[in-house]
Amino acid sequence: MSTHSKPVFLRALDGETLVTPPLWLMRQAGRYLPEYRELRAKAGSFLALCYNPEMAAEVTLQPIRRFGFDAAILFSDILVIPQALGQALWFAEGEGPRLEPVADEERLRAIDGQADQDKLAPIIETVRRVRGALPRETALIGFCGAPWTVATYMVAGRGTPDQGPAKELFTRDQDLFQRLIDRIVVSSIDYLNAQIKAGVDAVQIFDSWAGSLGPAEFERWCIAPTKRIVEGVRARHPRTRIIGFPRGAGALIPGYVTATGVDAAGLETDIDRGFARDAIQSLVPVQGHLDPLILRAGGPELEREVAAIRSAFGPKPFVFNLGHGILPDTPIAHVERLIAAVRA
Ligand code: 1CP
After folding, report:
1. In this structure, what CATH number is given to the domain that contains residue 326?
2. Where does substrate bind (predicted)?
């Protein structure tokens, strides 16, 4: 295989420094696109869209057709794992996900020991369809939520500002919380391996709420379960690259990278650039970290930020991205300006 048949996104994850960094955006398939809103309306609900392989594949491909990003990300959600574990999941229109909270022994027992992989079959079918339709030079990213972040939703039944209910549970009953984490770990390994078998080229583990844990808690609830997922994926697919994104973990990220063995690290918007370059990018390729608010605002500040990020991280293996998901009211023209600036 010549180097150039390999997607630039994978070359960066493999440790190659590219003059023009590969580019994709978290939540690139989403409400800022009129073609997404149209299909979303047709599907009736967000979950109906996730579980319909034809529509989910189409939504995954939309931003690739429009913008030519270097990677597509499977259109799904981290909360399909709780759903496959038997927990009721629905989306409150205009608000967000809702689950029946798991906060005691009885409710924990009510969800199966292992996820029902049949429930995830439509999502795996989406992967097959997308891989078949994507240009060879465009990588396909699969994903799951990290156990800690998924558990925060499973325990609270919804997104929370401080992850209080999950923290309260692990403080009150460590064993119960550990069993919940274990279930998520095992299910996530099977789920990621199924995605890889169906055609994803790399996977990302989203730990959106990693920043709410102190160092000892971070070790137990973020690092340890993530390490098990990395090992479980490696055992079956040793060459598939794994990106860890412990959002908000800042100074704990170098330890996370070393201990979990992830191949690359996502950088949130708020991280100090000098620190990220010296202490994280010295270990693994990094991905990030433009502020979604700056993208939405546009203007000369957007160009300045893109230049600053490229000059900080461009001299080493780097994937350009946002520090968190694109905001729904981001003008498409600003995304076009961003792409031009990154590829200039
Ligand atoms: O149409 C809509 O209104 C649904 C909005 C939406 C979308 C487009 C949700 C609901 N999820 C998604 C897709 C999604 N979610 C992807 C697809 C790929 C992509 O384009 O990037 C991914 C990777 C996720 C991951 C996800 N879901 C995370 C981790 C990343 C992050 O954003 O921090 C989390 C925390 C979720 C839960 C979730 N799903 C949806 C919402 C609004 C939320 C957050 C709810 C909350 O915290 O209150």
Report:
1. 3.20.20.210
2. 27-31, 77, 153, 208, 324
Find the domain containing 204 and state its range: 3-343
What's the 66 CA to ligand 1 centre distance in angstroms?
21
Q: Is the CB of 207 under 6 A from ligand 1?
A: no
Which DSSP category does 282 fall into? T
Is 272 annotated in the active site?
no
Cα 195 to Cα 31, 82, 89, 223, 266, distances in angstroms: 24, 17, 21, 22, 20
How many domains are there within the chain?
1
Give the largest Cα separation in the chain, rounded.
57
Strand-pairing partners, residue 205, are 144, 244
Q: What is the pLDDT along the chain (344 residues), one digit of tens a residue?
A: 445 689 999 999 999 999 999 999 999 999 999 999 999 999 999 999 999 999 999 999 999 999 999 999 999 999 999 999 999 999 998 899 999 999 888 888 878 677 888 999 999 999 999 999 999 999 999 999 999 999 999 999 999 999 999 999 999 999 999 999 999 999 999 999 999 999 999 999 999 999 999 999 999 999 999 999 999 999 999 999 999 999 999 999 999 999 999 999 999 999 999 999 999 999 999 999 999 999 999 999 999 999 999 999 999 999 999 999 999 999 999 999 999 999 98
- Single-letter code of the amino acid located at 334: H
- Is the minimum distance from the CB of 152 to ligand 1 under 6 angstroms? no
The residue to mutate among 25, 31, 78, having the most atoms of ligand 1 within 8 angstroms of its beta carbon, is: 78
